[in-house]
């Protein structure tokens, strides 16, 4: 596949992404009985890899900015791309140059030191916390469009490893240490197919948080890949006949 290419959808699908059935590549459309691959969060490099490995026809979900533009991916030319006769000629030309004499090359390597950052045994002992040291954040996440609860939404405290997911009712619960987060936290809320949100939460309030998530703007449908070879790729094709 060419390093430069375009993705086009000539006939967009009007089925609702949120009503399709989840599968391992995106969703399954019951209307047309096809898998719809979710490319919406793919980088240009990931798109190139996927289309290089999968040449068959399929349907996809894309963001508008991924379509109808030239996607450029850095080319990596392997020596196997060239004919043996060209390789032999290049090798002969290389060997015809005078050899370097008395070239002493010294390599120096940086010396690294490791320090023992382990905490003392005393620091590893967990201190008992009272109930007042903790606060519980509760909330519910729903689809802004149809008002239905969203299942398995990722809820994470920003800049930390603390997180959870919503249950079948769209509800979640986080238990946080006040000493670590003090008076407020920012929740990073993410769900495939929906716009991500950041929500500031006041830990001094016990209110239940209601989060409405908006579906991402996306385009569904069968797509076509239009290869646009780079200058070097065109030269390679000419050399290889």
Structural class by SSE content: alpha+beta
Largest sheet, strands/sense/barrel? 5 strands, mixed
Taking Cα atoms only, what radius of gyration do you get, to the nearest Å?
28 Å
Regions with little confidence, pLDDT below 50 for 5+ residues: 77-82, 105-129
Note the run of SSEs as H and E. Answer: EEEEHEEHHEEEEHEEEEEH
Distance between termini?
17 Å
Total count of helical runs of at least 4 residues? 5
Please indicate the percent range of residues in DSSP E strands (runs of 2 or more).
25-35%
> How would you write the strand order of the largest sheet?
2-3-4-5-14
Range of helix content: 10-25%
Note the topology.
Blueprint: E1 4-8, E2 21-22, E3 26-29, E4 34-38, H1 44-53, E5 59-62, E6 71-72, H2 84-95, H3 121-124, E7 134-143, E8 154-157, E9 163-165, E10 171-177, H4 178-181, E11 184-190, E12 197-202, E13 209-213, E14 219-222, E15 224-227, H5 231-239
Parallel strand pairs: 4-5, 7-13
Antiparallel strand pairs: 1-6, 1-15, 2-3, 3-4, 5-14, 7-10, 8-9, 8-11, 11-12
InterPro entries: CarboxyPept-like_regulatory
Protein name: TonB-dependent receptor
